[in-house]
């Protein structure tokens, strides 16, 4: 028998006390998690600590369960797997570490997705067929407006974020304080969608002519002698105004990804192009842009997925009024305002189907770049 195999077998021959210790730790961690969950579910125990104390205890229990408990379970599971023969250990160990994540994803993502699809076909008015909700989704005039708006968003928002982010990515590399410049452009991405919506709602605020304009944009317009514009009420200006707010958020993301990609372009290629007489714009267009094609596709697809899920900006600014509705906002209203769960789940499935092709393009692009291959 080879010496390496003998050494591995010797390592696997652990004393019985070690096995008992690991099993005891595993049982103790399971009991700790069970007790922690019981405390979290017990309103009486937390109410006795007061509002602040209850929240603090919840946070501490969550940290212990989510960090210490899971870490201890992985350590114990790994120790138990090492008791098996070497070949079995090699095969089983990856599943021990990946298994809990797969189980959690199945419970909180896969199962609800399957349930949503089933509900969209089964929760229909009495006497109607299983496709009733989908027929309504594509024939209802209000939904047709939402679908049209989503199509406009898909065309303009990713393209706008990509082009502006690409321009910033090419320009910030030439300034002295590059990090500071990037920070200012990236800040909007750190703000929540609802916060961004509130900011831009104040920017677009409109008052009738003759009244003080508290909106920045209308204050500028009236300062130059123009009439105040109802940006969020005028069609189709309002949809374009909301897209501008979304682009403001996503530009920082696009700039960071594309700037990193540009830095990866070989300097020799750009110098060779300049020696051949190419200008800066030609060098960027014919050398830099083809070299960062994969990053451009990634930025576009990620932004397109974010567009399909856009909700908070529309909900906070107009709530879909004045023909600004989108599918995600309509889905929310159908479910939580009108309690029309079948129709809402059908809209959720439509969004899921729309996202899948974009995800396929993104995954293929990453594999083409050697990521995840």
Task: Explain how this protein is built.
Residues 4-12 have low confidence and may be disordered. The protein is built from 17 helices and no strands. The chain has helices spanning 3-12, 16-41, 43-47, 50-81, 86-122, 132-139, 141-172, 178-186, 193-203, 216-223, 237-263, 267-275, 280-291, 293-308, 312-317, 327-336, 341-368. The protein has two domains: 3-122, no CATH class; 134-368, MetI-like fold (Orthogonal Bundle), CATH 1.10.3720.10. With 373 residues, the chain is an all-alpha fold. Helix 5 crosses helix 17 (341-368), helix 6 (132-139) packs across helix 17 (341-368) and helix 16 runs antiparallel to helix 17 (341-368).
Radius of gyration: 28 Å
* SS content category: mainly alpha
Mind telling me the CATH class of the largest domain?
Answer: Mainly Alpha
CATH topology of the largest domain: MetI-like fold
CATH superfamily of the largest domain: MetI-like
Tally of extended strands? Answer: 0
Sheet with the most strands, sense and barrel status: none
Give the helix proportion (percent range).
Answer: over 70%
Measured between the Cα atoms of the first and last residue, the distance is 37 Å
Give unreliable regions as ranges.
4-12
Order of helices and strands: HHHHHHHHHHHHHHHHH
Beta-strand percentage range:
under 5%
Mean pLDDT: 83
- Count the helices. How many? 17
Outline: globular
Give the count of structural domains: 2
Layout of SSEs?
Layout: H1 3-12, H2 16-41, H3 43-47, H4 50-81, H5 86-122, H6 132-139, H7 141-172, H8 178-186, H9 193-203, H10 216-223, H11 237-263, H12 267-275, H13 280-291, H14 293-308, H15 312-317, H16 327-336, H17 341-368
Helix pairs in contact: 2-4, 4-5, 5-17, 6-7, 6-17, 7-11, 7-14, 8-11, 9-11, 11-14, 12-13, 14-17, 16-17
